[in-house]
Amino acid sequence: MTRERLYIYDTTLRDGQQTQGVQFSTPEKHQIAQTLDKLGVDYIEGGWPGANPTDSEFFDEVPQTRARLTAFGMTKRAGRSAENDDVLAAVMNAGTRSVCLVGKTHDFHVETALGITLTENTDNVARSVEHIVGQDREALFDAEHFFDGYKSNPDYALEVVKAAHRAGARWVVLCDTNGGTLPHDIHEITKAVIEAGIPGDHLGIHTHNDTENAVAGSLAAIDAGARQVQGTLNGLGERCGNANLTALIPTLLLKEPYASQFETGITLEALQGLTQASRQLDDILNRVPLRQAAYVGASAFAHKAGLHASAILKDPTTYEHIDPECVGNARIIPMSNQAGQSNLRRRLAEAGLEVDRDNPALPRILEAIKQREAKGYTYDSAQASFELLARGELGVLPEFFEVKRYKVTVERRKNKYNKMISLSEAVVVVKVDGEKKLSVSESMDEAGSDRGPVNALAKALAKDLGRYQDQIADMRLVDFKVRITQGGTEAVTRVIIDSEDGQGRRWSTVGVSPNIVDASFEALLDAINWKLLRGDG
Amino acid sequence: MTRERLYIYDTTLRDGQQTQGVQFSTPEKHQIAQTLDKLGVDYIEGGWPGANPTDSEFFDEVPQTRARLTAFGMTKRAGRSAENDDVLAAVMNAGTRSVCLVGKTHDFHVETALGITLTENTDNVARSVEHIVGQDREALFDAEHFFDGYKSNPDYALEVVKAAHRAGARWVVLCDTNGGTLPHDIHEITKAVIEAGIPGDHLGIHTHNDTENAVAGSLAAIDAGARQVQGTLNGLGERCGNANLTALIPTLLLKEPYASQFETGITLEALQGLTQASRQLDDILNRVPLRQAAYVGASAFAHKAGLHASAILKDPTTYEHIDPECVGNARIIPMSNQAGQSNLRRRLAEAGLEVDRDNPALPRILEAIKQREAKGYTYDSAQASFELLARGELGVLPEFFEVKRYKVTVERRKNKYNKMISLSEAVVVVKVDGEKKLSVSESMDEAGSDRGPVNALAKALAKDLGRYQDQIADMRLVDFKVRITQGGTEAVTRVIIDSEDGQGRRWSTVGVSPNIVDASFEALLDAINWKLLRGDG
């Protein structure tokens, strides 16, 4: 049986940029375009040339992609020809092989927002599409508010999309612009459009996630016959975002009936780069990746419940709908349950510690983890502290230095200009190679503002570690997370510190104490000890 | 036309706790239960009594709720009677009116995971349900892996759920445990179950978000006839989470065909508390609320695109599928903050401050909130700090006392028994009624262990406030949450403090600073000032 071709249209660079707080630079747009192209999407919508400088700049140096790079714009305005519309001209001048224009199909919007007649609007759409086709380009028509328009005036909504189709549009894209149409309605209305004469292999679907149904709405349109689907990586986009391609693509490639029914431009091999593509976009945006994201989230294949975790060890298909490796993700069985020794040995191996199955330290390590987790520690993410704890039990943890004592002071008072200021100061006393070393630091950033006691402690601790000083010179604290948690009967503070070094290593450590300064200090010490274990400068 | 009753079943406290990194304390579980009850869900699944200490503790002091509090467990094991199964007994002993038991319906799991015969399993399910019903309780049966089971062996899957139904289960809940079933299949299989003889008003649906279709899958089951829907606030839950009630509830109440078809226990008035309920849960979990969340996200009604923003100003329905106020959210239009004023007046009224529509302080308060939120403050849950800020702008905030300065020291060193100990000490200088007062406290609990600098500061601050001393004598700090957040370009620390007094009042305050001690001190000051405003001893 021949499989039907289904086209993936990415609009991360255009609609994705409508996300609150998102503004890509031109190099970032190029980087994302390369990632999308490597993944194998069919179309990359690059932006609206002429609408803002970054979009124009992006098209000035069109990247070489296998995917069709598409310029976005709007249909010509009333009262002038397509040739004489300067906004449309800027879009055409980007010189892309494909051009996508948005236009109105909802009578209310035509009359209220544009203030023109329904006939004028239909004519604008048809003439604009003809203009693109006349220049030997591929034309796409984004039918804005199509579903709301169809509910309000089906005859008119159909008249506009049929006009675009007749004028030669390769794709008529049904857009649920406000994101409020539920999947069932999308299915019915898409079917009605096909029955009205536009073939499904000329129909696209563009949904938004305002009811958390964007993915389902896209699938509903595909079920009805649409053969192009639009969306963005990580579901970026205005308001609640667009249909999330990071969730849609694996569903279309891996799950039935789609996997057997369709062929796309994305190979199963390229699909294994999906998790990385998703995280790379978050890195560009300086966002913390969503742990719970479908397919690509760090928790997507994490099995916490005791019953589930033990079944997973017998057979992964018991609690997994796909193999995580298909999308480049990984299974996580947290230590916090009795998942047991095989899981522990796997984690030790990841830390470079090969331990025999019958090593008597294994049950001791599990017991130590259990006891510490009862006190409020967590080793799900603090892999470096886990390694130190395990090394302690295995007898392979050197003592690089010893902390004798420390003292931190925070003072808040008026300065000589009668303004309230704060000052933090830390003294740390360590013993290295038998020698006692006192260090003192205060916490002040370049702007002269106090960064607090933990910062002061970190500085003092790292100030003089004798012959180890060079080895920690390139490490820095990049994140600091604090949670109040229940350790036994009393609330305690849990601090997780993320550190980084010049070789691009990133590691997490944990500290727990009723005293937040103590908890931070413990995590700081682990961070330094882990770095010293790696032993390079 | 009479509307059909649709039941909402919340499992935030049970399945939601399977989220990686989530571990509610017992007081947190009580707080969430109260929020859910205020919202108006029909069932609150509180946990698995006997499976872990927190769950057992929660049921020891069953909260008074209008919603049915439900204990969760598993069907009896083979080879013993329901009466003699200690795991089941622990669940029954929680004494709840409703009991929900999970059991297998997938032949593969029965034979592989349990290693018993199909007949034994069916019998376990039937006997367990009979046991609940025999004790005059309401029985619910969670049919684990039902959809996968139905695909593998429809006759057997149906046999099990029919046995549960015949045994008297008020609800048979079809669970898509692995989260891999797509909405279309959920629809077809739910229809098949109804055709096989279990009426829709005895059928529930429980989905997971592994393909980002949990909400759509729930709607598909409701479309097919199921009349109970399970989910969690903010879509918490194992792996990618459960069906997100925060998205489902507004869709069911506000959007067609559901709004006309169904009656739920949730009023349109209670629905206006949804955004706050969602953010409160994030505060408890110390999570950053998801901006793009459907309905309740800070970006859900943010209109960035120029064309959209100008149309919204003409008529909000042009780019909004519902009115944001229906869910207690607010429209955001860059360069315009006329949104929010009515919302602001509603919050002021909640604090007992009736403010006229044309009061010039209203835009000032909005502006102050906006500026402080840009610095890292949050007022969604810190209602007491919000009230103090508003009172300041309204000119109705008395100055009870002034803090002149403070100093805190944390020291860690060996004691005379050569054991590492820590000590925190705080000095606070305040001016009350023109009189300067110096107080010093150290932080030591009954067990002689150090509770840290914030505790020492709180004690010193509350030690002598002159004539206000009696008024604060019955207040205590019950929770303390810390998050590192972005205030402008630098990371800052946000502290939220929950306080309680002898009259059962509970209030939250917020402080922000790069210095964690400063941030805590600011939140402490707000907590005391709010208590003094209430003016009673």
TrEMBL record, chains A, B:
Q: Does the keyword Endoplasmic reticulum apply?
A: no
Q: Which biological process, per GO, is one annotated for this protein?
A: L-leucine biosynthetic process
EC number(s) given by UniProt: 2.3.3.21
User: Where would I find the Pyruvate carboxyltransferase domain in this sequence?
Assistant: 6-272
> What Pfam families does the annotation carry?
HCS_D2, HMGL-like, LeuA_dimer
- Write out the catalysed reaction: pyruvate + acetyl-CoA + H2O = (3R)-citramalate + CoA + H(+)
PROSITE patterns, per database record: AIPM_HOMOCIT_SYNTH_1 (PS00815), PYR_CT (PS50991)
Q: In which pathway does it act?
A: Amino-acid biosynthesis; L-isoleucine biosynthesis; 2-oxobutanoate from pyruvate: step 1/3
GO molecular function terms attached to this record: (R)-citramalate synthase activity; 2-isopropylmalate synthase activity
Origin: domain of life: Bacteria
Q: Which keywords has UniProt assigned to this entry?
A: Acyltransferase, Amino-acid biosynthesis, Branched-chain amino acid biosynthesis, Isoleucine biosynthesis, Transferase
Protein family per UniProt: Belongs to the alpha-IPM synthase/homocitrate synthase family.
Q: What protein am I looking at?
A: Citramalate synthase
Q: Which organism is it from?
A: Roseovarius aestuarii
* Protein's gene: leuA_2
